[in-house]
Each structure stands twice: as structure tokens, then as C-alpha cells.
Amino acid sequence: MASYIIEGGKRLEGEVKVSGSKNASLPIIAASILNPGITRLYNIPNIHDTQITLEILKYLGCKVRKNHGKIEINSKNMTKRDIPEHLMHQMRSTVVLAGAILGRFKEARFSYPGGCDIGARPIDLHLSAFKKLGINITEEGGFITCKCDKIIGANIDLDFPSVGATENIILASIYAEGITTITNSAMEPEIVDLANCLNKMGAKIEGAGTKVIQIEGVKKLKDISYTVMADRIEAGTLLCAGAITGGNICINYKTPDHITPIINKLEEAGCKIQIAKGKICLQAPKRLKAVDIKTMPYPGFPTDMQSIFVSILTIAKGTSVVVENIFENRYRYVAEIKRMGARITTEGKTAIIKGVRKLSGAKVKSTDLRGGACLVLAGLAARGTTTVTNIEYILRGYEKLDEKLKKLGAKIKIENNDK
Ligand code: EPZ
């Protein structure tokens, strides 16, 4: 396992570029399965989760070529319809590949994605939607087999605006007979990016980014090149790194409207934010102010930023109340950051954070991707040295995070402790 070793107390300054979006890349890589030809993707971040997804495509028979940030996927001769169990368990969001495999081959076999570090992560909404599309589903021994002669467009109303379920319905409906309408669909920017990519391939999707999405089945798709959007959660993470260190940073990021709730909360906490052409600059105050947060589906405050924002609240002046409305187990990092002197109590969905003057460095363990990022930011601000272990979680979702932070003046290095 590897660790970050962080010397705290350095004010971050300078400018850094935000990488491509993990959560847009995964469904867009899946979309390349639908085109029995070549799809060229740019700005895909080189992180564990995209690597695993590309491994699965190669297992399925796709030819994958990577050079300098461009990924070329040739899905002409795909031979398999199942997602290998060992890869399924490495990453929950591989379930979105099932929708793409089904959309093209009308059959797919995969194991239950299993829970993860932040909650049970069920896929009932995905499966009930597949059934409405005319897909027969059998479950046996932890495996799910989906099969049908043809996919028939349907009206699907989601109980919850699930991002993954929305993506899976879109992917499975591209070649359907007739029209599929999703109501109460997720509105995240990653859904819009997926729809833009598929429409460029020749799909007919309307309404992405709104509560109602319509997919009219088409007969074929074509070869295209597509550049994936920038990662809004990494953008928020880097801005919070500037905020927690009393810093003065700019991020090279061109879609500020994707992170309005994060910008609003940083301003409420006393940061000065300037949105210039192609970048966002943040000037932190001497001491941050406590603010209250409620995570919501987009366009509300993103759940993926909850733990990261809590890190800055631990040293803010006053008491903050945070409510996590999306996942049922997204406070596992709290026990770790309390070892650094944070004063946090959690009760169900709610966390109460009493700001302290300073955190102190400690040895802490990443519990999940965003919980790990929270600990890194706490280490940047803490007195002394912080060792964040199990950073494999963090490497899943952030491309070269240590190098980006070093570029802004942080003292951080990776230590491999696989002795
Ligand atoms: C996506 O996960 C993101 N992952 C998550 O980011 C993000 O936190 C989440 O959307 C919410 O924005 C990717 O895009 C790869 P959901 P997803 O389906 O699709 C419940 C990160 O850190 N639910 O919108 O799994 C579910 O349990 C990751 O980058 C059901 O009950 O999220 C959760 O409570 C973490 N049944 C809520 O809905 C279902 O069938 C939101 O889940 C599906 C979901």
C-alpha cells in the first residue's frame, strides 16, 4: 500500500490545470461499445478507474490503443458479453457497461457490483428500468443475466434521480425500437457529456441535463472523436485546497457553471472568487467562516464534495452543520480526521463541525476516494507531518494529485510501503 507524506502549513499559490472528468469518462468509454467501429476519446484521465474500465473492454474483445491522452477504441470484433467478476468487484460503476453491452448485443452477464465504502449502492433502479425495456433478467449465485430479442422503447420514471441508472437507460436504449422517455432523470453535467458524445455518434437524445430525457432508437452509429469534460469534483477539491491553506490559487477550468454550489459556499466561507476567461481564482481569507451544507442531486451541492468541504470547516470560525442526503455511509473519514484534532460529531445523515484554530499532523487512513481527499487537504493545513495511508483509493479518482498540489507549493510526496 502507498501513502502520502505531507508537511502542513504551506500557503498554496499559483495555477494548476484540472484533468478530465472521471465520472464522465466511465460512461463515455462504455458508449464506445455501441459503435462497431472506432471511437477516439481525448482528455480521459489516466486513473485506476479508467484503466479498469479499459481492461474490461479489452476482455470483451475491443482493441484499445493509448497515446498521450488520446484513447482509440475499436469495438468491431467484440467476442464476449459478460463482465468478469474480479473486475466488477474492483469498481462499482462498471455496472454502466452492462447497459452498453445490452444496447448492442441484447444480452449481458455481470455480478452484483457489491457495496462500497460509502453505502450499499443497490442497482434496483437499473434492473427495473431494464425490465421496462423488455429485457429478461435472471439472478443466480450473485450473477445477473440479461437477455432479450429486441429492446423496446418505454416510459421510465425513476424513484430517485440516479446518475448511474440514467446513464444505463440511455446506453441500453440507443438502438431500441421506438422512443424511451426517462422522467425524474439525473441532471448531472456528466449525463450531458455522455449525451453529447452519443449524439455526435449519431444517437438521438434530447433533454439531457433536465428532468426529462428522450431517446429515439437509431439503426447505427458512426466513428467519431470526442473530448471529455473537465472534472468538476477535482476542480472543487483544488479550490478547497487553496481555501484550507489560506492560499491564493487559480485553476485552469472552463465550466464554472458546473460548480456554482461549491463556489457559492466558498464565498459564504469568506473566500474571494474571480471567474476569468478559462480559469477560476480563489483568494482565501485569514480565517474561514463556518457554513452549513446539504448535499443534493445536481444542481445542488454535490455529495462527492461533502467530505472535502468538511475538511475546510474543521478549522473555520464557528460551528457548521452538514447533512448528507445521497449516501447512507459517507462519514467514515470522520474518525480519521478527528485524530488530527477536528471536533466533529455525526448523528445519522448529519455532522456537526466545531471549528478549531489548527489541526495537528497524524497518521491517518483513507477510507474511500473522497474521504481520502479530505485527509490530504487536512494534512496541507495541519501543523507538522501527516501520513495518509491507503492512497490507492485516492489514485482511483485523481490524476497526479500530489504533482498538482506540489505545483501549488505543497510539500507532499508518495511513499510506497509495499515492503
Ligand atoms: C455516481 O454514482 C457517481 N459515480 C458518484 O461519484 C456520485 O457520488 C453519485 O453518482 C451521485 O452523484 C460515477 O459517476 C462513476 P446514484 P452512482 O445512482 O451512479 C441510490 C465519486 O466519488 N440508488 O446517483 O452510483 C444509491 O444507493 C463517486 O466519484 C439506489 O437506491 O450514484 C445512492 O444512495 C462516488 N438504487 C443514491 O441512489 C439504484 O439502483 C445515488 O446513487 C441506484 C442508486
Short recap of the structure:
Helices cover 31% and strands 26% of the residues. By secondary structure, the chain is α+β, with helices and mostly antiparallel strands. Strands 21-22-1-23 form a four-stranded mixed beta sheet, with helices on one face. Strands 2-14-16-15 form a four-stranded mixed beta sheet. A four-stranded mixed beta sheet has the order 4-5-3-13, covered by helices on one side.
Notes on the structure:
- The chain folds into 2 domains: 203 residues, Enolpyruvate transferase domain (UDP-n-acetylglucosamine1-carboxyvinyl-transferase, Chain, Alpha-beta prism), CATH 3.65.10.10; 206 residues, UDP-n-acetylglucosamine1-carboxyvinyl-transferase, Chain, CATH 3.65.10.10.
- The protein is 31% helix and 26% strand.
- The protein has 14 helices and 23 strands.
- The strands form 6 sheets. A 4-stranded mixed sheet has the order 21-22-1-23, with helices on one face.
- The longest helix is centred in the N-terminal third of the chain and has 13 residues.
- Ligand EPZ binds next to helix 1, helix 5, helix 6 and helix 12.
Please write out the topology.
Elements: E1 2-7, E2 13-17, H1 22-31, E3 38-42, H2 48-60, E4 63-67, E5 70-74, H3 85-88, H4 95-105, E6 107-111, H5 124-132, E7 136-140, E8 143-147, E9 155-157, H6 163-173, E10 179-183, H7 189-201, E11 204-206, E12 212-216, E13 224-227, H8 232-244, E14 248-252, H9 260-268, E15 272-276, E16 279-283, E17 293-294, H10 306-313, E18 319-323, H11 334-338, E19 343-347, E20 350-354, E21 363-365, H12 369-381, E22 385-389, H13 392-395, H14 401-407, E23 411-416
Parallel strand pairs: 2-14, 3-13, 9-10, 17-18, 21-22
Antiparallel strand pairs: 1-22, 1-23, 3-5, 4-5, 6-8, 7-8, 10-12, 11-12, 14-16, 15-16, 18-20, 19-20
The protein binds ligand EPZ.
